[in-house]
Each structure stands twice: as structure tokens, then as C-alpha cells.
Design brief:
Distance between the termini: 50 Å
GO molecular function: metal ion binding; metalloendopeptidase activity
Structural class: mainly alpha
Enzyme class: hydrolase
Catalytic activity: Hydrolyzes the peptide bond -P2-(S-farnesyl or geranylgeranyl)C-P1'-P2'-P3'-COOH where P1' and P2' are amino acids with aliphatic side chains and P3' is any C-terminal residue
Strand content: under 5%
Shape: globular
Strand order of the largest sheet: 1-2-4-3
Subcellular location: Endoplasmic reticulum membrane
Number of helices: 20
Order of helices and strands: HHHHHHHHEHEEEHHHHHHHHHHH
Protein name: CAAX prenyl protease
Length: 469
């Protein structure tokens, strides 16, 4: 532990200029946040002309019914226009809030609020919680019209919206309530660790955040998700039998198999699994069940089980923890840097002893350009994992033969072909874009494009046949 703290201290020595030099950090954040936004707008402008193509890629022409491709292009074009406007609008709002002192005002407002409740400014954790929720609620208000438009105009126009205005408002209120119920204790413990551990907070904070994530793995499906959706046991039938048999053959620790009423809000479809290593739950959207044949849904879940087999969620967790560790290792220099707070307009009496939550928020803003690069790298890793999960589905027959015998592997030889058909069906029915600019995809997409995945599946199937598997 002493070695770790020694290395972290060396990092802070190299960053000591932050605490001394007078740098216009607010200008830096404004310039780089706008740079990221304009780059994202540029990517949209690269992608936009592809929505004017009049035919799908040759390999997909037979999969579109008359008029279906035109609908997907129109949907993509409308989404791109909305994304371009909303991105610039949100950046303009954020930039205005930053420029005109919204953040210093919010800290002072939080102090005034707790004083009205009978607490002095010495209760910094309480003021910090009030500060975060003032920021959260007030900064949400300007973006509410975008959420409303996206749901009741854009998605409604293209036939996907199932949300009622009452449900929209109810969801919003529930989200705010959940943010407070879970966010307040999290912030309190988060800040208490800083008070208790001082500059040696990194390992203790990492331990707390990992523990919190594991707790949420349990609480989200059992407490939070039921507030928004109904999870029901998947009905007996062909699909249930297929999934349970598949899980058994792979020794996947399946505890519950649910159907979720995703159609309550949207016609889009999905499937996922969650849980602790020894107890997993599979959730299938009712829209996926309605839109796909049982054999295709089984193939989709074979892909998802590939993520489990190759431990992709665990690997992504480790990568994310390394990312968080790096951020926390850099933070102490900014935690003790009055010039940083001064540059953002905080009064001298606040900047003199920077509140932890304020310093951390400003530090996150300063990291904006770095986080944009990190997201590209994370997408690249995620796409690699998607290809690996596709390979698992294609090679599933051989894996089951090797572990459970030839009889158990019967009917799995075409799993890759079924997965390809399922992907095509989901793309067509969800009006997903099939023409994608490579740079736009690299920045925005955690999954390979449909054509990339189909080509990969074909190559994997050919390699499998060549080996005689």
C-alpha cells in the first residue's frame, strides 16, 4: 500500500503546477467542449448523405420488403437532424451555464438552503448533496423539450413510441426520486471517504465504488426496474425450452428467465442478462419475442451467452475500474488547487479551501477531451467482444459436442446462420441504418455494423466448414 501511495504522490508532484499557475481553465473547458461537440457534428454531416442512398447494400437487398428500406432511411435522416440540433443545443446550454456562473451560484444556493434548514456551512457534505441535486434538477429542465420531442414526435412519427404523456411524466418523477434515494447516500459516503482518508483516498474509494456497483447489480432488477417495467416469467413453450436447454448445456447459472414489457414504451427490441457470477437472469423484451422466431431468439441469446463464456462483462468491469483509477489518481492535484475554482468564478472564500465535490466536478469538465478519446477506445474493445460472441455462436455446436456429447449438439450447426437472420430481422424491423460511415461508427458505435457482422459470420461459417466441424 505504501508503494502505491508513493507512486500516486509522484504523480501529484508532476501536476503541482495546477495548484500554483494561473490558468484560464474555464476558457480551456469552453474551447475543448465545443471542439468535441463540433467534431460530433462533423461526424453527423459525414453520415447524413448516406441516408439519401436509394437501395441497401447488395447483400441485403432481398431482406427488405418494398418500402421498408425507404422507411429506415427516412428514420435515420430524421434522427440525424435531431441529433445535430440537440447536440448543439445541449452544448449551448452547458456553455451558457458555465459562462454565466451557474455553478458558483448553485454552491451558494445550496449553502443558503441548508442554512434555512438550520445547518451551518460547516456541514459540507450536506451542502454538497444539495449542490449536486440543484445542478441535476435545474440543468435537466432545458433538455426536457428535447426528450419530449424525441418521444412524442420523432419516435411517434416512425411508429415506435408507445409511451403516453402520463407515463412520460411518471417516469421522470420516478427517475428524480431514485436519483435522490440512491444518489444522496452514495455522495455522502463518497465524500466521507475523502474526509477520512485524506490524500490516500484512492484505494478506499475504489473499494467503495466496486462494492456499490455489486450492490446495484442486485438492487436494480429487484427494486429499480420493477418501478418502470413488469418482469414476468417467460411462458412455457418452445422458446423457454430452447433457452433452458442451451443454458444447461453450457452450464450457464440461469436462475430466472423473464419477459419484460418493453412494448409499454417502445417497439424497439432487445435481450440481456444480469446478475452475480453464480446467479444469472435472462431478460427478453416482449417485442423481440413478437418480432422474431424462437430459433432466431435462441441464436441471439447464444451470442449473449458468448459474452458470459468469454467473461466480457468482467473484462469491461476491469477496464472501467482502471479508467476510474486513473481519473482518481490525477484528481488530488485539482482537489487542492484554489486557482482552478477561481478561474471558474468561485469566490475567494470558497476557492481557498476547495469543496471536494466542486473540485471533482470541475476536474471532470477539464477531462472532456480525454474522455472523448477514451470512449473511442472503449468502443473498439466492445466491438472486438461482439465479434468474439458471434464466433461463440457459430462454433457452439463444436463446443457442446466436446463437453456434452454429439446428441446434445444436435440442431446447433446452423446457429451462425440463425444469428445472421435474427440480426437482419432486428435491423429491418427497428428501421436501423444499414449504410454507416466508418468514422461515425468508430466514435459512436459499441457494436460493429450489420454488414460487418454478417461478413464476419460468413467467414466464421466458412472456416468452420473447412475444418469439418
Amino acid at each position: 500500500m505504501d508503494f502505491l501511495h508513493g507512486q500516486l504522490a509522484n504523480v501529484q508532484t508532476h501536476l503541482s503546477f495546477v495548484q500554483k499557475d494561473s490558468i484560464d481553465w474555464k476558457l480551456y473547458v469552453q474551447v475543448f467542449s465545443w471542439t468535441v461537440t463540433l467534431f460530433e457534428s462533423y461526424l453527423l454531416l459525414r453520415q447524413y448523405p448516406l441516408y439519401s442512398k436509394t437501395a441497401p447494400p447488395p447483400a441485403l437487398e432481398k431482406d427488405f420488403e418494398p418500402g421498408a428500406f425507404e422507411k429506415s432511411q427516412a428514420y435515420g435522416k430524421d434522427k440525424a437532424k435531431f441529433a445535430l440540433f440537440s447536440g448543439l443545443y445541449k452544448q449551448a446550454v452547458d456553455s451558457s451555464l458555465l459562462q454565466f456562473g451557474f455553478y458558483p451560484w448553485s454552491w451558494q444556493a445550496a449553502g443558503y438552503l441548508i442554512q434555512k434548514l438550520g445547518y451551518s456551512p460547516q456541514y459540507q457534505i450536506l451542502q454538497s448533496i444539495a449542490f449536486v441535486f440543484i445542478l441535476y434538477f435545474l440543468s435537466t429542465i432545458p433538455t426536457l423539450p428535447l426528450s419530449w420531442y424525441g418521444t412524442f414526435v420523432l419516435e411517434e412519427k416512425h411508429g415506435f413510441n408507445k409511451t403516453t404523456p402520463k407515463l412520460f411524466v411518471t417516469d421522470l418523477v420516478k427517475s428524480w426520486a431514485i436519483a435522490f434515494v440512491f444518489g444522496a447516500p452514495f455522495l455522502a459516503i463518497f465524500l466521507k471517504i475523502f474526509q477520512w482518508a485524506g490524500d490516500r483516498f484512492v484505494p478506499w474509494l475504489m473499494a467503495f465504488m466496486i462494492s456499490f456497483q455489486l450492490i446495484m447489480v442486485i438492487l436494480y432488477p429487484t427494486v429499480i426496474q420493477p418501478l418502470f417495467n413488469k418482469l414476468s416469467p417467460l411462458a412455457d413453450g418452445d422458446l423457454r425450452q430452447r433457452i433452458e436447454a442451451l443454458a444447461s448445456k453450457l452450464k450457464f447459472p440461469l436462475k430466472h428467465l423473464y419477459e419484460i414489457d418493453g412494448s409499454k414504451r417502445s417497439s424497439h427490441s432487445n435481450a440481456y442478462f444480469f446478475g452475480l457470477p453464480w446467479s444469472k437472469h435472462i431478460v427478453i423484451f416482449d417485442t423481440l419475442i413478437q418480432q422474431s422466431k424462437p430459433k432466431e431468439v435462441e441464436a441471439v441469446l447464444a451470442h449473449e451467452l458468448g459474452h458470459w463464456y468469454f467473461m466480457h462483462p468482467t473484462k469491461m468491469l476491469v477496464i472501467s475500474q482502471l479508467h476510474i483509477f486513473t481519473i482518481l489518481a490525477l484528481f488530488p492535484a485539482f482537489l487542492h488547487a484554489p486557482p482552478v475554482l477561481t478561474s471558474f468564478g468561485y469566490p475567494a472564500y470558497v476557492a481557498k479551501n476547495p469543496p471536494t465535490i466542486v473540485a471533482f466536478l470541475l476536474f471532470q469538465m477539464i477531462l472532456t477531451p480525454v474522455e472523448a478519446v477514451v470512449s473511442i477506445a472503449m468502443n473498439a474493445v466492445s466491438r472486438k467482444f461482439e465479434f468474439e460472441a458471434d464466433r461463440f455462436a457459430v462454433e457452439l455446436e463444436g463446443r457442446v459436442k466436446a463437453t456434452a456429447g454429439e446428441k446434445e449438439a444436435e440442431g446447433m450447426g446452423d446457429m451462425g446462420e440463425r444469428l445472421g437472420r435474427a440480426l437482419i430481422s432486428l435491423h429491418v424491423k427497428n428501421l436501423s441504418t444499414v449504410w454507416v460511415d466508418w468514422l461515425y461508427s468508430a466514435y459512436h458505435h459499441s457494436h460493429p455494423t450489420l454488414t460487418e457482422r454478417l461478413k464476419g459470420l460468413e467467414q466464421l461459417q466458412a472456416a468452420k466448414e473447412k475444418k469439418g466441424l
